[in-house]
Amino acid sequence: GENVEQHPSTLSVQEGDSAVIKCTYSDSASNYFPWYKQELGKGPQLIIDIRSNVGEKKDQRIAVTLNKTAKHFSLHITETQPEDSAVYFCAASKGGASGGSYIPTFGRGTSLIVHP
Amino acid sequence: NAGVTQTPKFRILKIGQSMTLQCAQDMNHNYMYWYRQDPGMGLKLIYYSVGAGITDKGEVPNGYNVSRSTTEDFPLRLELAAPSQTSVYFCASSNLGLAGTKNIQYFGAGTRLSVL
Fold it and tell me: Which of B110, B55, B69 is nearest to B88 (CA)?
């Protein structure tokens, strides 16, 4: 089955700095890669996603890049703010023409701490 | 829309007791899921359902049972609770069309369970 590795497990930055979280996956047939943000005491919430036919996607201060050859994808947060502090999860799934049921495999999570 | 509602929010069980974690969604989603989240371990899939009357095992199903008699409800049953089932449990739902789309999951706020 799919295996998703996520690094680092903890990331501490100063407000205004950039933060990068990296994930690798094992199944070359995976074709959908979402990122979820989990605030304290809440369930995860989708913040951005990318399909395998796209190399990069941006949404304001967040962006995701995908390298299919190397089987890794990354979340980039620029101009970090204290409200970005949360646990971030990457995931990989496959479905459609690739087969599979779109059930995602999650990474272990990264705890991002943004210091004011 | 309330989204995905989980009850209870907290529960303490004694070893050997049984309980049902409730999950309801009002978005008419066909897919529903149960995950457990342990510190530093990410989200592990327990069971999932692709529609009423259909359920399937995930990565860690032992000690749990589910049923899906309606589109809205997906209860998780713990029989003979054990300390290893101490965790935070999340229910999620998503809507996948016949043509296959991005699997965007919507999570509940979680149930924190302690087995002592």
Answer: B110
